[in-house]
Amino acid sequence: MKFDTPAGTNPIDTMKVIGQAVDRVDGKLKTTGQAPYAYEHGEIPGKPAYGYIIGAAIAKGRIAAMNTAEAKRMPGVLAIVSAENAQPLGKGSMNTAKLLGGPVVEHYHQAVAVVVAESFEQARSAANAVRIEYERGAGRFDLVKEKPGAQPLTGNDADTHTGDFAGAFASAPVQVDQTYTTPDQNHAMMEPFATIAWWDADALSVWTSNQMIAWNKRELAATFKLPPEKVHVRSPFIGGGFGGKLFLRADAVMAALGAKACGRPVKIAMPRPLMLNNATHRPATIQRIRLGATRDGKLTAIGHESWSGDLPGGGPESATQQTKLLYAGANRLTALRLAELDLPEANAMRAPGEAPGLMALEIAIDEMAEKLGMDPVKFRVLNDTQVDPEHPERPFSQRNLVRCLEEGADRFGWNRRSAKPAQMREGRWLIGMGVAAAFRNNINMTSAARVRLAGDGVVTVETDMTDIGTGSYTIIAQTAAEMMGLPVEKVRVKLGDSSFPASAGSGGQWGANSATSGVYAACAKLRDMAAQSLGMDPASAEFSDGRVRAGNRSAALAEAAKAGELVAEETMQWGDLGKKFQQSTFGAHFVEVAVDSYTGETRVRRMLAVCAAGRILNPKTARSQVIGAMTMGVGGALMEELAVDKRFGFFVNHDLAGYEVPVHADIPHQDVVFLDEADDKVSPMKAKGVGELGLCGVGAAVANAVYNATGVRVRDYPITLHKYLAKLPAIA
Amino acid sequence: MKAFTYERARTPAAAAAAVAGNKGAKFIAGGTNLLDLMKLEIETPTHLVDVQDLGLDRIEETKEGGLRIGTLVSNTALAADRRVRKDYGVLTRAIVAGASGQLRNKATTGGNLLQRTRCPYFYDTNQACNKRKPGSGCAAIGGFSRQLGVIGTSDSCIATHPSDMAIALRVLDAAVETVDASGKARSIVIGEFHRLPGNTPHLENVLQPGELITAVTLPKPIGGRHFYHKVRDRASYAFALVSVAAVLNEDGSGRAAFGGVAPRPWRVEAADAQMRSGAGAVAKTAFAEARPTHENAFKVALAERTLAALIAENRA
Predict the structure, then answer these.
(1) How far apart are CA A108 and CA A279, in angstroms?
(2) Which among A349, A523, B179, B261 is placed 20 to 30 Å from A89, CA to CA?
(3) Is B43 at the interface with chain A, CB within 8 A?
(4) Which residues of A are catalytic?
């Protein structure tokens, strides 16, 4: 099925099941510990052995010698695999550094060997007995130092110029020209990278934890030089990913190498202290933003340049993405520059581009509003646009940013905010409020599904879509239930298996809309088949309450499969509506903070997000997505930072004690409001994503609230107390 | 983790003898720190002597009117003890500011004093660390040091002692009771228990090989209002950037010890004497010898401001 004209009325519009706050269909499995995660599957051929990965002890250089003699003699050791004895490996198209390094070392903790033993403890112990000598090479670890040599990019990341930015900025009566920085960040998902791998002759099977099954299958095949049909990937439950599990990582490769070497299934869970340097992270950015405005508050010039770094062959953090689209203004400039660094591999983390981009842009907007003496909500409203500002012939498919801002201001009590900072006090606490716009593009991905109608009236959905904690199982069940006129209980959903039709997978907040659209397409086909089987006209058949009705005829849906199961498979493909219309999601974040006037400790007191993201498929799972994202936003604003040792080239705080993310005590009352929308230009579901929207802008809203509380503007994330302590009001 | 043998000692002296006579032996109580370090092979004992059967898990009143806290009293039990809450509130507040409920259930009084630094370079065995491997150097100096020490440090080591409990014990003038292999007991005042690193940062306290902590004693209650304020980037489950344990009197006099700043609980009695002159005067004396890094220089000001907050609260 191809979606190339705006959706008309369709069965989803019934919204008997879609749009309802249905409990997670997999909730009971998870809360009772019965949902098996990658490391826990028992369905494997034989007793597993355990692998322990050795990470490189240097960031750049070579392995001069690896002595495994002592380790090999240790109890229970079955195999030690390194580049010295591994089969020659290919490299997946989405990996920058090799997943098995050696003798060349490309980054700190790059996997250089795996020790396989009868038990985890034996493998770990033997891994510590492998003696490796390194020749340390010179590396580039400091973005500030490498910034002058950073290079421009092409394609989607190429510079954009609209009008005459330089002239308009120079002549603007009110200007902001500031530089902001965001640090390297880690996904810090709960479940570590984990895989159980085994071989059956030349076929490779894995239970793994991965967001994108079809990519994972393709990349495993490329790495092991196998035809894709020889690779079977399963990942039915995933304990968080946030982009960290979009790609094939060392756990799967090393488990497969280990399994080949010892002829048994091998399981590996990556220890947390290895994960932060071994795998990918969101790279640090340096962002210069220049805004020019008229005195009455109209933006005339918007310039956003961003620098980030990655290993040779890697990509940038596209932090200017939202600036192309968020505000009106005739003269515009965006530019990305990429430096080469020898730090661990940079890649996607939740809302790549927009999350750090808005952390900077939405402070700059706050600064401009203050310079203009305008309320920051009103300033944003004044500069709203209903068309792509770089291509005014392209309207937004639906854009309700203004309503998000105004309704949010109203609900939050924004009028109680003092425009002048550092005015509100409660005892020793300085109180402040901040706002930021939320913006994240909608992305549609090709997505297929197979649906089966059995003689008992149960519909089973099979797609390789993943549920990374987001609620995919539930919204897919709701979609099939709505389409087939069934209650959710009559739908079974099977996910995360590469033998199922390839879906959109989970990433870029594209999963919900794309994957349910694939299920919609397959169900549309199944409806036709069911109607035909019942001798009814597919065009006029109505599906509801477990029955099919056409004209004056009515039959139970189950009757359609009486003679045999009906199976329909279909792929949702996308036409050019995404080109004709700019498809994006919008929101407004409001935050109130209290800052201890003595110690500088910042505590978030209240948060509100108002989101406009098309039809909300399930307000309960969507709300969970948004409050989780808001929590991540607080982390990004106030504490998260991979500390770079610029001498030795690694992230020093490489565990969950050192890399701080919010705990319960950091998270106050959170409110989420979804505007009642349905965007007929994005899909038959009329839905868009919310998972990343919920993060976009939160950091800046917190930053603006800290400024409003203290009068101290911090442009260097995270906003930790040492950056403003000296500027707080004097103490008695 | 290296393979090790294990025994359960029956008496304190037997435990001390078992460790004193075996160079690779260590005591184990709650294990909340030791086991982590063993997994990383930062600690590699060949023999563990478990002290949990020694019956040292009671809190008793001393004849001087104080309390004797058995070394195996859990952090949870100690913080919850009615007498501690009533007369030594700073201790309860400090303990509950540390770790998590689960860890405090397992962590013991003696073990808390013996926990090792959380310096990230100590934990990463690829990095030079004089504390972990004497003579190998200190990667933390010149590295990521925001969390590390500002005073009492040396050119060999800038790590801090991570305990919250010990900061309160220091302000209370507690003492550590021990027994050695011969059965001989001694009492060490808390201010002399932890060593400064000098050029031997691997030696962290004055215990002799095999010497076992049996109890921590608190002198009789000292009155005053008890405060513990721990400053950190998140609201819970993080080590202190700076913490202040203070006991302040109505007349403005009092005493304070600082955590998160030094290789041991940091208290300078001459600084306490200035309490009535305010936090600035106290901090000036207490941190006169500070030599912070450029990343953690803020800790000196933060310590002063945190104490100032407590003094203001005491006045209010």
Answers:
(1) 10
(2) A349
(3) no
(4) 692
ipTM of predicted assembly, 2 dp: 0.97
HSE (side-chain half, CA atoms, 13 Å) at A185: 30
Q: Which of B33, B124, B294 to mutate to test the interface with A (most CBs of A within 10 A)?
A: B124
Is the Cβ of A76 closer than 8 Å to some Cβ of chain B?
no
Residue A453 tokens read as: 């109608």
Q: Which of A645, A657, A731 sits opposite B305 (nearest CB)?
A: A731
Residues B126-149 pLDDT 10s: 999 999 999 999 999 999 999 999
In CATH, the number for domain A285-442+583-727 is 3.30.365.10
- Name the residue among A135, A122, A116, A131 with its Cα closest to residue A53: A116
CATH class of A2-36+444-575: alpha beta
Calpha distance B37→A653 (Å, rounded): 16
CB A311 within 8 A of CB A96: yes
Neighbours of A706 (CB within 10 A): 30
Nearest one of A291, A244, A288, A290 to A270, comparing CA atoms: A244
B237 chain-A contacts, CB cut-off 8 A: 663
Q: How far apart are CA A433 and CA A375, in angstroms?
A: 12
Whether A497 contacts A464, CB under 8 Å: yes
Was domain A48-138+192-238+245-278 assigned CATH 3.30.365.10? yes
Common-topology check for domains A48-138+192-238+245-278 and A285-442+583-727? yes
Give the integer Cα–Cα distance in Å for A71 and A449: 48
Task: Report H helices in A485-562.
Answer: 511-533
Compare CB distances from A598 to B144, B238, B305 and report the shortest one's residue: B305
pLDDT tens-place string over residues A450-476: 999 999 999 999 999 999 999 999 999
- Interchain proximity B139–A645, CB inside 8 Å: yes
Domain ranges of chain A: 2-36+444-575, 48-138+192-238+245-278, 285-442+583-727
Partner residue facing A660 (CB), from B124, B229, B233: B233
Q: Which helix (H) or strand (E) holds A132?
A: strand A131-136
The predicted model scores a pTM of 0.98
CB proximity B136 to A under 8 Å: no
**Residue B29 corresponds to which tokens in the numbers above?**
């109580």
Q: What is the DSSP string of A550-572?
A: ETTEEEEGGGGGTTS-EEEEEEE
Cβ within 8 Å, pair A652-B2: no
Answer whether B305 sits within 8 Å of A725, measured CB to CB. Answer: yes
Taking the CA of residue B16 and the nearest CA in chain A, the distance in Å comes to: 28
